[in-house]
Fold these 2 entries.
Entry 1:
Amino acid sequence: MTPQLNNHLSWLWQVLMSNNMKDEISLVVVTISLIFVLAIILSYSSKLSNRAPPLPPGPRSLPILGYLPFLRRGQAHVQITDMARTYGPIFKVWMGTKLYIAVNTPELAKEVVRDHGEIFANRFAPIAASLTTYGGQDVVWSDNTPTWRKLRKLLVHEVLSNKNLEASRSFRRDEVRKTIKNVYRKMGTAVNLNEIAFLIEANVLTRMVWENSSDSPSGVEFRMVVSKILEIIGRPNVSDFIPGLAWLDLQGIERDITREIKNLDRIFTSIIDDRIKSNSEKRDVAVGHDHEAEKKDFLQILLEIKDQKADATSMDITNVDIKALLTDIMIAGTDTSTSLIEWTMAMIMQNHNIMVRVQEELTQIVGPNNIVEESHIPKLKYLDATIKETLRLHPVFSLIPRSSSQTCIVGGYTIPKGCIVILNAWGIHRDPRYWHNPLDFNPERFLAHDGMNKYDFKGNNLKFIPFGSGRRLCPGVPLAEKMQTYILASLLHSFEWSLPKGEEHDFSDTFGIMLKKRKPLIAIPSQRLPNVNLYM
Ligand code: HEM
């Protein structure tokens, strides 16, 4: 009870006991006072029991700018992990006028993605990303809306289904063979593995997206636009942190992205128009032609679903939906996989014993007189463990952003509606409480024991979340798994790799939207397989 309340009660007690209090007016006054005091006591105690828990702790920050001036450029993942040691496993930090909440343990991550999965199924789209995806009308950046659910369902069940991934196997094979041939020509010279990985990923995805377009614009132009968009989205933008300044576009990011989006939209529009035209021409002339037997690219699959919309069971999709989905596949699929391939090659090259084991496995499963095929992938267990160990130490999405659609409680603290929650995958993956000798590169920890594999890419175990977890888990997992293992296996089976003379490995990283190697991996390939025909 507060001192004020105590004073009130003792005053009333004295009045009641006083000899002068004889008349009825006094009695009424005392009764009213009593009721009044009781009401205060009741409301005070109910307020105490209803009081929401506080916001998580966090550093002091400046008005308007928040913690922005103290951010270490390109090192947000390291800084957030360091701050968790000071402020605890869940803490808040103001970035400009936006409230961010960092979640740094698997237990708290579980509360976010599982226990409150529906509430944290929103995203916060940076301006550049939102503009690229037709106002966030896509899968990656849209909030948990009916449009998002429709497009995600379409992407997972129609576009990236096992059947379609199987049907597009030959596109991936062609592009990987082309790359091996190109690298073969450059043997003995220094090659940039980042460029090689980006080119092969972008080519594979472009083929899968619209292989059948007879007169589509050059893939080179498309790759350049995608690469520029990725670079612009990765730039930290003051307008995202202080929306009040967005109209000034201080860094020119909105201007730059708008220019690139116009290019992207022009390319998409012309491809879609051409395809619609050629589909109708084909329908007119090809009597008895078996369309079903044709391998279909993603554009064809989506256009066919769009054409079937009259059928009550199919989904109603628009050209904008199609463009947004294709953009997602290209944007979400290229840089992520490129970065993973580069990191994995760097880690394997630095650890000679691991390189030897990976190549021994390839020799045993594929054979020295064969090239790698996708059918070998499920048997390459050690390579799979090596990729997982790379993603543990260098998760491409180190800080996974979600946003809350309602105020709720996590870890005993209030998380307000609309704030941005960051799942710190980088910190969780390196936490000694969950990983033995976490800084050692040791693929063994991902090998199955007693036939049981403790970790998958589906985020079932929240100690390991390179592809996220829960409702917004990366839908590209089946494709990424196929592509990354196939490409890495092919590069490592066909060639020996070494650093240029006098060079040393540099594992420094930089964080934009993704975590990348600061310096590209430059390496020298040499012939590994005895038969030259395997490179043609
Ligand atoms: C190494 C490769 C990749 C990595 C590490 C990766 C990682 C991630 C992560 C961490 C998320 C956020 C998940 C969450 O919020 O819980 C995500 C979302 C997403 N990824 Fe991937 N990804 C990769 C490749 C791909 C590919 C190849 C595609 C496309 C075919 C793709 C499409 C998407 C999409 C559409 C989303 C948004 C899902 C949603 O918000 O509902 N990703 N990815």
Entry 2:
Amino acid sequence: MDSKSSQEEKNAGTSKSSLQFEQLGVWTVMEEVNHDNLWIRFQWNPRDWIKEVIRASSILYRFALDCYAVSPWRMSIYIMFQVWSGLTTSINMYFTGKVLNSMQDALSTGSLDGRILFQTIMLRISLRCIESGLHHLNHSIRNGLSTRVRTLFERSLLTSNLRLDLSSCEEKDTFDKYNKYLKGKYFPNAWKTFTQIIGRLQLYTSAISQLTFLFGVLGSHPGGYWFSLICLVNAFSAAGWHGRIYKNCPTYVWDSNPYFRRIRAVMQIATDLKHRMEMISDGISNYLEKEWLKASENLVDVSDDYYTSQRDEKSLISSIIQRLIGDLPLMFYTFQVYLSPKAFSLSAVALTQQASETLTGVVWRALNPSSPFSGLVRQAEELYTLQDSDPLLTMMDGTLDYAEYAPKANGMDIAFENVSFSYPKKTENVIRDVSFTIKQGQIVVIVGLNGSGKSTLFKLINRLYDIKSGTVFIDSHPIASYMAKTLRKATAMHYQTYTHYPLSIYENILLGNVDDGINMENEQALRDSVKEAIEMGGAEEVMEKQPAGMDSVLKPNVLSTRNHKSEEGGPEFKAKMAEIGKSTELSAGQWQRLALARLFYRAKSKRVRLVAVDEPSASLDPKMEYALFERLRSLSSIQGKTLIYVTHRFGYLTKRADLILVMREGQLVEQGRHSDLLKLNGEYANLYNLQAEAFMSDELE
Ligand SMILES: Nc1ncnc2c1ncn2[C@@H]1O[C@H](COP(=O)(O)OP(=O)(O)OP(=O)(O)O)[C@@H](O)[C@H]1O
């Protein structure tokens, strides 16, 4: 395990701290460690301290009062129970000691004082009953309390959140802070904060009562003070061990291993529905599988266990010492018994037992994990069921290889005959009895109002869905007779909801065409080709602005965590933290240019016969829109590919189209060339005139 520590000293006033980096498996751990000497660190300024105590007390007082006011009687019982819980360990130790002392007396004198034993046992039983009663009551009031406290604070936070103006929302820190507390029960909320504060109260009560007991009761036994001290050493060493793993300083941990990140990126592409359309159309599944395998092989000896468990395992010697210290109280008492068996005390042995309760706690947690054993078995069973079953495919694949059956031509013939379609699990047809014919090499524009079915038609051409009735012919064969994969290899599609993979710019574009093979031995040629596509998509400026150019990852899929102290980190710590998970902010037009670059990269291939674009210029300026159309048009006019263009903005475009399809409410209401459709004076003429009028009135103003 390679370990690196770089120190960048910084001075903030009188305090000295530095950033320390440690590589543990796939994680980089960044900690801001304080180097002040002990004197400076523990320098106590009573005035500052008093000020801080007053400030904290007033906040806590207000918080406590607000929480208390939601239901005073419930809150009183809840707090009483928490305090009681803090005292139970000591009370239990006290009673155990008393009972055992009586037994010890009985063993040494041969007679038992039944009255004292009876009283003790009855008292213990009563206390246990009270404890169970309170526990029961506490459980039933806790639910009501938590919802009340959470809602009280959520309401006021929501009110302030809704009043934020846009620029405040864009101040991500402010917005995130609100959102952190508005996500519901499983995220940080007022009730959790309250219970944590009460938890501290309970912890202090417990620690003070146990210390009092240890020194008070054990002090009267021979060697008792020594024993108490050993128990303390044990407790402190455990705390020190814990402190070595979770250092009490600002900490930020992220996955810096490129292979680990790549595995997660592939997983994200595979599991997020928003990537699925492009994934299917561009046929990248094999490539993703290979990349996953490659990354997994590289990661085989690198641990991805969380950094704390890696630290825990790191030092064998300190781990042995820590465990031996845990046994010190018992060893001490065994030694005492050996030296003077007469001073042997049953109650002290019982207390030794109590002191080792921490160990019992660990076993208890192991036996009572957060998810039950039966649940784990069910999960494993589910894994096997998924692994053994075929993927659930709703479409029957065809048998023809499109590349073999298609005529020798550069374009694609497409014909719809009385096609109707409804989306899966919907009954209403969104495409109704549509028929048209597109000849290879033609430029076709599909127009219509919102929701008229343009994008749906577009998805049917690529067989993303199967139609309900009618037939779609591709080069004279029904679309369903082709192996879908082979047909898609001949198409380049730009969807309205284009996606961006959590990979580099270079790879985002490269994935547009994995079917022609990605030959990494000739990477320079690939890079040149990708660069050319970036220029065709108009995205060269976007790429040039990135520090790593084509290799920049604009939306990194970073896995990171921070501890509660991270808010207290210095400016350098915070800057580094912000830098790690940062996504590049691009305008909608810039994202679209990148998606278009991917389309051009694919469309360049000789294999591609149909280029289909759905609203490719929705976010582009008029200059870029014109350039884009000309570039796309050349794919048809020069290279002979069929071009389908779905758009709301027409005029320039439709005048140059060989065929215009006009959609309304799922039906094809008109089709023909621009001049013919204008003469019809119907839907197309209406839409065209509306746009022309708007354009004219803009000019007049
Ligand atoms: N995935 C889907 N599941 C169910 N219904 C859908 C889905 N996608 C679209 N629809 C519905 O199909 C109809 C046609 O939508 P479509 O997106 O094809 O219209 P459009 O003409 O492209 O609209 P726009 O101009 O707004 O892009 C609409 O009523 C829409 O609500």
